[in-house]
Design a protein that fits this description.
The complex is a heterodimer of chains A (about 375) and B (about 375).
Chain A (H helix, E strand, L loop, with lengths): L9 H14 L6 E7 H10 L9 E8 L7 H11 L4 E5 L13 H6 L3 E4 L3 H10 L4 E8 L4 H14 L4 E7 L3 H9 L7 E5 H7 L6 H6 L3 E4 L3 H17 L4 E3 L11 H10 E3 L2 E4 L3 E4 L3 E3 L8 H4 L15 H6 L22 H4 L4 H14 L4
Helix pairs in contact in A: 1-10, 6-11
Chain B lengths: L9 H15 L18 H15 L14 E5 L2 E10 L5 E2 L2 E2 H15 L2 E13 L4 H18 L2 E10 L7 E11 L15 E4 L5 H9 L17 H11 L3 E6 L4 H13 L2 E5 L7 H10 L12 E5 L1 H12 L8 E7 L6 E4 L5 E3 L13
Parallel strand pairs in B: 5-6, 10-13
Antiparallel strand pairs in B: 1-2, 2-7, 3-4, 5-7, 8-11, 8-12, 9-11, 10-12, 13-14
Classes of the chains: A alpha/beta (about 375), B alpha+beta (about 375).
Chain lengths: ~375, ~375
């Protein structure tokens, strides 16, 4: 595939791996966090971890939009889906995220009309085609997907579509990052910045990481060469004693972000006073809800939702895993109460979460020297 | 994947052992209800089969079937017969490259062929929805007859039921097939040995991609056709060339090549190492998969087999396979190793290594 394969060139990958090795202080252990779940996926898919020296460790950050949705919000979605006449739409990977009792896939098996869509515009199309049904979109994601939800709502309003509404779970990336960085026991040396989020918000919102917390950030693309190059750029900053936000992904990320997208978001959304994150607890001003002008499209207003907070089990230590303070296997519930089949915390929900990856592949990681 | 040091500490070792014990236990079926995941060919399907079906149906009462094969063998006098049954519930009924009638013949024929049996005869049961257009039925009956003629099997019986409108999606088909186990065949699900080469009979993911696009959910136009075909000619060629060196064959249907490999790695207690760059994927399937966020390794095929061949017979077997019509792009995609047992590893085209795990249910696209 043109313009894709160029960024997956194995030979160039080896060259970058060699440069990374040359940049390292062999006596030092480096812990770098990739903030975005999309990066975690690429790292896993291409086996990038395997190309890194043993003293460079990647820690998976809080940027998987599906995994951070708390059980109570999933329960709210399921309750809406069970209403008579509702067509409930959401992105594919949301379907298997556990609520307190069960998942949206289970709700579908019980008779709820749950449909997977690729875009909120698809949900709006379903609303247009089914004027006698209420169509609800379960909106999730960071600043990457929020503009598309906002545009969809603007269009719904312009077209006067009244049978469409939205359960808004959009979240913002900076508050959870700040919460992680505030932790006194944080053990991270640098950050691979979320390229897609930055396409919308630009690079500026991440300046606080080097400025206030003294850690370098490199905004990165999602192809394997992008990620290796970003790691190299972070290591170069560390070695040179620099600490700044660098942009490895200028082919997509403009310094100031996408002003039109930000405008639309500002019109359609407002900040929630606080929002609960699976594994991280309540974080103030970390999520979006529909603004006064769009309140009529808020499914939480239109339908009765339980709105009950379902506490993460006390023993769950996702926060510590995310901060790199403990390894997955050091968590008290890891592998016993919390398994991929019955996940408790965010790190076990997604197959690429740190705990799920360790559960499935830890033994392989041990044995791979022998393979 | 977290990077681990060379030596496990005591506690980490204990945790790994707990996981290992939990995984090696036979799956227990504890789900409260059936979801679509149970039909997707991944972990949920495996739990259903190992946890509910096998314990109930095992003939010796111990709950241990010799192997979870798609076809079973029975001795009748001096003849070894293979028998299998399969159901077909595809939507839409017709799609580029095939239809439900053609699938119903080829699916069962292929289960027999993978057991090393020359397909002989089929029965066909139809469950029809009230209101089904007769022309639709007529077309499928013709498709069944044509596919049976191509595969060289006779349709020797069947059944017809009609259910109320809404109780079925147009039509469902069930076929049962009987074949004669070929004397050249020495196949076993657990017969795979370290050193064996892994072959696939052609480009993967075409059937599943064609179906996804035919559902018109994506506004994508691409000329991808289902790969549905009888795999007996391919099986016949492999048996002829490799004989006892052919250790196992499986058609990579639902769950795709990845799911079949995982199932067989577990059954044989060996590891597979797949070279991603050598796996044939047509550019158009690769592009569709890229757009849809799906890995072709997990996408269904209806006319592709995976074969495990002893190293000394592998080159000749691959050569023979490529002579078969439709298998011109067959390839050797990896090999069997001893460690770590039950796992499928991939050397990615980018040069890294990772585990290719079994999915729980259908592949779901990611939002980012």
């Amino acid at each position: 595939m043109k313009f894709v394969d160029e960024y997956r060139d194995a030979e160039l990958g080896q060259v970058l791996a060699g440069e990374i090795l040359a940049e390292l202080d062999p006596g030092r252990h480096y812990k770098l966090m990739e903030i975005c779940g999309g990066h975690t996926h690429s790292i896993y898919k291409y086996g990038i971890d395997d190309l890194l020296p043993a003293n460079v460790e990647l820690v998976h950050g809080p940027g998987c939009p599906v995994c951070v949705i708390p059980m109570g919000r999933v329960d709210d979605g399921i309750a809406v889906a069970h209403n008579d006449g509702v067509i409930f739409t959401c992105f594919g990977d949301m379907l298997r995220v556990p609520g307190s009792e069960y998942t949206l896939l289970d709700a579908k098996a019980q008779g709820a009309d749950v449909r997977m869509v690729y875009s909120p515009l698809d949900a709006l199309r379903i609303a247009r085609e089914n004027p006698e049904r209420e169509v609800v979109f379960f909106a999730i994601g960071f600043e990457t997907t929020a503009p598309s939800t906002a545009l969809t709502l603007k269009r719904a309003k312009a077209e006067g579509i009244t049978n469409f509404s939205c359960v808004c779970n959009h979240v913002t990336i900076v508050p959870p990052m700040r919460a992680l960085l505030e932790s006194p026991d944080l053990r991270l040396d640098g950050f691979i910045g979320p390229g897609h989020v930055c396409t919308v918000v630009g690079a500026r919102p991440f300046q606080f990481i080097p400025a206030d917390y003294g850690r370098p950030v490199v905004i990165s693309g999602f192809e394997p060469l992008d990620i290796l190059q970003s790691i190299l750029m972070i290591l170069r900053q560390l070695r040179a004693g620099r600490c700044e936000v660098e942009n490895q992904y200028p082919r997509v990320v403009p310094q100031e972000g996408n002003l039109r997208a930000l405008e639309v978001m500002a019109e359609v959304f407002e900040l929630r006073p606080h929002f609960e994150w699976r594994g991280l607890g309540f974080i103030s001003q970390s999520a979006l809800r529909l603004s006064e002008a769009y309140r009529e499209f808020d499914a939480e207003e239109r339908f009765e939702v339980p709105g009950v907070r379902v506490a993460d089990p006390k023993a769950c230590q996702c926060g510590e895993v995310l901060k790199g303070v403990i390894k997955p296997w050091e968590c008290k519930v890891f592998g016993t109460a919390c398994t991929p089949e019955h996940a408790i915390g965010t790190c076990m929900v997604s197959p690429e979460g740190a705990c799920a990856a360790y559960y499935n592949f830890g033994r392989f990681a041990r044995e791979r020297e022998a393979v | 994947m977290s990077k681990a040091g060379p030596v496990a500490t005591g506690r980490e070792q204990r945790v790994l052992e707990i996981i290992e014990t939990a995984r090696s236990k036979r799956a227990r079926f504890r789900d409260k209800q059936i979801t679509l995941a149970h039909g997707a060919g991944g972990k949920a399907t495996q739990t259903l089969i190992e946890g509910l079906l096998v314990p109930a149906f095992a003939s010796d009462g111990t709950g241990a079937l010799p192997a979870l094969a798609d076809a079973g063998a029975i001795e009748v006098g001096a003849t070894r017969l293979a028998m299998t049954s399969d159901s077909f519930v595809v939507k839409p009924l017709r799609f580029p490259g095939g239809s439900i009638g053609e699938l119903a013949v080829n699916g069962t024929v292929n289960d027999l062929a993978m057991a090393g049996a020359r397909p002989l005869a089929l029965t066909v049961s139809m469950i029809l929805e009230e209101g089904l257009d007769s022309d639709v039925l007529r077309a499928e009956v013709q498709a069944i007859a044509a596919a049976a003629a191509t595969a060289g099997v006779e349709i020797v019986g069947g059944d017809t039921k009609v259910v109320e409108r809404g109780a079925a999606d147009g039509m469902y088909l069930c076929t049962t097939g009987v074949g004669e186990v070929d004397p050249r065949a020495q196949l076993a699900t657990d017969g795979i040995r370290p050193g064996d080469q892994i072959l696939v009979s052609g480009p993967i993911g075409e059937h599943g991609t064609a179906i996804m696009l035919a559902r018109n959910q994506f506004d994508l136009d691409a000329s991808i056709e289902s790969d549905t075909c009888s795999l007996w000619p391919a099986a016949d060629a492999l048996l002829e060339e490799a004989g006892a060196g052919l250790h196992c064959m499986r058609d990579a249907t639902r769950g795709g090549v990845a799911s079949v490999l995982n199932e067989l790695a577990r059954a044989s207690g060996v590891a597979f190492v797949v070279r991603e760059a050598d796996v044939p994927v047509s550019p158009i399937v690769a592009a569709a998969a890229e757009l849809l966020g799906i890995d072709p390794m997990y996408v269904a095929n209806e006319g592709r087999l995976v074969a495990f061949v002893a190293p000394e017979a592998a080159d000749a077997a691959l050569g023979a396979l490529r002579q078969v019509s439709g298998c011109e792009r067959a390839a050797a995609i990896g090999e069997v190793r001893r460690e770590p047992p039950g796992m499928v590893l991939v050397h990615t085209a980018f040069g890294g290594r990772r585990v290719m795990d079994q999915l729980v249910g259908d592949p779901l696209p990611r939002i980012c």
